[in-house]
Hints:
By secondary structure, chain A is an all-beta fold. Helix content of chain A is 0%, strand content 53%.
Amino acid sequence: GESVGLHLPTLSVQEGDNSIINCAYSNSASDYFIWYKQESGKGPQFIIDIRSNMDKRQGQRVTVLLNKTVKHLSLQIAATQPGDSAVYFCAEYFQGAQKLVFGQGTRLTINP
Amino acid sequence: EAQVTQNPRYLITVTGKKLTVTCSQNMNHEYMSWYRQDPGLGLRQIYYSMNVEVTDKGDVPEGYKVSRKEKRNFPLILESPSPNQTSLYFCASSLSSGMNTEAFFGQGTRLTVV
Lengths: 112, 114
């Protein structure tokens, strides 16, 4: 996942705009990646996943892009809405250890 | 409704007083795990369980115990809590530990140890 830091990265966008949240992962052997959304006072919620043999996957208003060359993952949210305000985590799955490792998260704020 | 239920949601306790945070899932999932979430550190896995009576250490197991006597329950036990265990705790379950299995998280337990 992302390198550990003391401050949560933040991103502010206007309602209706598109947003892109980035994540750098650490293990080139990771073969599965997931994006989670965590709203205030709630547990993380699955948004979308992608396997390492893909470079793009689309869901409803969300697209995940995977660039294995530079070990970079991004989540694009189209036409953002107030309900998209949350902390977004990327997670990489280690097949050998059979576990998920989470990044530190990015706080997305949607401005009206 | 499919869910993971943690109790309590909030807990303030004193150093050294044993406590248990319960976790229950109603989805017949095999895999369950506990995470702690701290500012700037994301979610770190404490313990996990592949199935009944099968538990193993995660990345930060020190000071914690777990048990998995039944499939639906996976309590987290702090035998002698210390202030550095003040954190937000999440229980999660999934059908298995493999890829493409969505993890469902509980609402979280905010623990303060004074």
